[in-house]
Write a structure and sequence with these properties.
- The longest helix has 10 residues, at about 175-185.
- The chain has three domains: about 40-170, Sandwich (Immunoglobulin-like); about 180-370, Sandwich (Immunoglobulin-like), CATH 2.60.40; about 395-530, Cupredoxins -  blue copper proteins (Immunoglobulin-like), CATH 2.60.40.
- The strands form six sheets. Strands 15-14-13-17-22-20-21 form a seven-stranded mixed beta sheet, with no helix packed on it. Strands 1-16-24-23-18-19 form a six-stranded mixed beta sheet.
- The chain has six helices and 35 strands.
- Residues about 1-25, about 315-335 and about 355-370 have low confidence and may be disordered.
- A hairpin with a 7-residue loop joins strand 4 (about 50-60) and strand 5.
- It is mainly beta.
- Keywords: Metal-binding, Oxidoreductase.
- GO terms for molecular function: copper ion binding; oxidoreductase activity.
- This is Multicopper oxidase CueO.
- Monomer.
């Protein structure tokens, strides 16, 4: 139902200028957003039995002109070739995926956010060597939500994820299905995933990556593997499930109409639905994090254009006196662009935004005559309990820092220098508070714990914090109120998370704790911990 050929496809799309849309947004947004469908990249797969995937490299038409070689998870589903499929599974269902590694190097499939035993977690502790196979079998214990899967080999995660090895996993349960019924928004139409990833792209449309940078910031951004896409929308409510699949860039998404932020509602985080919706105008979305939002286009006039922009922010405390960004002296930014530079991700056109739309008799024209009233947002979303009262829980402190040589550490531990043996042991069935302190003044760290979903219980914010207007009572923001598997710890900040190690798995397991800035991870900002009976 998408309009194609909005404009004539150019031979070379212009490169978006960071933070600037003054050139006229429609000159940039030429390609229709890829929607999950039956085949190709992001095909929908409603799993009923085992799925066989291969990790391999093929050319895809991502940018105008030459095809882009993408490393991806390929398979066949209902007679169609699929790549990095959107996997749909139900809570309680057994997810069975086999991997046949056709790459020239080891890889894995890590099931990011799933509560899972070590053997099926797909971390680099269990690499699948070139030419080898492995079967993952997971009884899905998570709440409904948007999770994802990606490659996770030691020291090559950044390269492989940047090259394309990432896909989405949507878990559903009864609460989710009840909400879908109330909202009445059809998946693939008004309920859409937005997989956002910035990439370094060369003039031959190849993705370029160099190991050893402190953070790999792209010069292009892909949404659903589409550069600078547009989506035609009806003037109504949409559910968008944002996933930050960037290697290192912390995004700050906002929906702008004529440079004014539209209010939207946050309804879910990494580990599923919040108890109630939160009105917001922008949020911070760190690498690996997801945000489930409701956006209401119903009060916009036909023809309106809404830009999904990652707003400017100052990611570091080491700004100069003018308040402008000063590059991290240890940093190695391949793009002449800091992490916090504004970036236009995609554009929404409310029905009728193109010259050729009015007469096309399509969905846009029908929707334009629809209701102008604001859509109803449900007052309650799920039965998610409030975060636990952690008084009396043991507190395990973690210090995040970098040494003078530029190596990254968690509690003085570097994965490559100090080895892969568990750095500590947690007793299964116990509950702990982990206190994450970012001892650096120059870099936010998105910290990810494997094998669990956790609750954020406290944030002690540094005085220079740029996010103060975002922060709710007690130092916590709306995104902290759900279940999470990745938490952003800003420079100078201390964040406490509560983890319940009552896992539905037996025996001794080894999991990973690491920074999800993939360059930090690959350079050793990672450790293994054991969960024992
Ligand atoms: Cu999404 Cu250990 O990774
Ligand atoms: Cu980090």
């Amino acid at each position: 139902a998408l309009r194609r050929g909005h404009h004539h496809a150019p031979n070379s799309a212009p490169t978006p200028a960071p933070g600037a849309s003054t050139a006229g947004p429609d000159a940039l947004f030429q390609q229709p957003l890829r929607i999950p469908g039956r085949e190709g990249l992001m095909a929908d797969v409603h799993l009923r039995g085992p799925l066989a995937l291969q990790s391999r490299v093929d050319g895809f038409n991502v940018f105008p002109g030459q095809p882009t070689p993408l490393w991806h998870y390929a398979g066949q589903w209902e007679g169609h070739a699929i790549a990095n499929p959107v996997l749909h599974v139900a809570h309680g269902q057994t997810l069975q995926v086999s991997l046949d590694n056709r790459l020239q190097e080891a890889t894995t499939v890590h099931w990011h956010g799933l509560v899972v035993d070590e053997a099926n977690d797909g971390s680099g502790l269990h690499p699948v060597e070139a030419g080898m196979q492995r079967a993952y079998r997971i009884r899905v214990a998570n709440r409904a939500g948007l999770y994802w899967y990606h490659a996770h080999p030691h020291q090559r995660t950044g390269l492989q994820v940047h090259a394309g090895l990432a896909g989405l996993l949507l878990v559903e349960d009864d609460e989710e299905l009840a909400l879908r019924k109330r909202l009445g928004l059809q998946w693939g139409d008004r309920d859409l995933p937005l997989l956002i990833a910035d990439k370094q792209v060369d003039t031959a449309n190849r993705l370029v990556y160099r190991s050893g940078a402190d953070d790999w910031i792209g010069n292009r951004v892909l949404v659903n593997w589409t550069p600078e896409p547009f989506l035609e929308v009806v003037p109504g409510l949409y559910r968008l499930r944002l996933a930050n699949v960037c290697n290192a860039r912390v995004l700050r998404p906002a929906f702008l109409h004529e440079e004014q932020a539209l209010e939207f509602h946050l309804i879910g985080t990494d580990g599923g639905l919040l108890a109630q919706p939160w009105p917001m105008e922008d949020l911070f979305l760190a690498p690996a994090q997801r945000a489930d939002v409701l956006v209401d286009f119903s009060r916009l006039p036909p023809g309106a254009r809404v830009v999904l922009r990652s707003l400017d922010y100052v990611p570091m405390e080491n700004e100069d006196e003018s308040g402008a960004f000063a590059p991290d002296p240890m940093g190695d930014h391949p793009a002449a662009e800091p992490m916090g530079a504004g970036l236009d991700l995609m554009q929404f056109c409310v029905a009728g935004c193109g010259d050729d739309v009015r007469g096309n008799g399509g969905r846009g024209a029908a929707g334009a005559s629809g209701s102008r009233r604001a859509a109803a947002i449900p007052a309650s979303l799920s039965s998610l309990p409030a975060p636990p009262d952690t008084r009396g829980w043991p507190v395990r402190p973690f210090r995040l820092h970098m040494d003078s040589q530029g190596a990254w550490f968690i509690n003085g531990h570097n994965f490559h220098r100090d080895g892969h043996a568990p750095a500590f042991t947690v007793k299964r069935g116990t509950r702990e508070v982990w206190e994450l302190r970012n001892a650096m003044t120059s870099m936010p760290h998105p910290i990810h714990v494997h094998g669990v979903q956790f609750r954020v219980v406290e944030r002690r914010i540094s005085p220079q914090d740029v996010r103060s207007r975002q922060v709710a009572e007690g130092g916590l923001g709306p995104q902290d109120l759900g279940c999470n598997d990745t938490v952003l710890v800003w420079p100078g900040e201390t964040v406490r998370i509560a983890i319940d190690f009552d896992q539905p798995f037996d025996g001794n397991q080894q999991y990973m704790l690491h920074c999800h800035n993939l360059e930090h991870e690959d350079m050793g900002m990672m450790l293994t911990f054991a969960v024992t009976d």
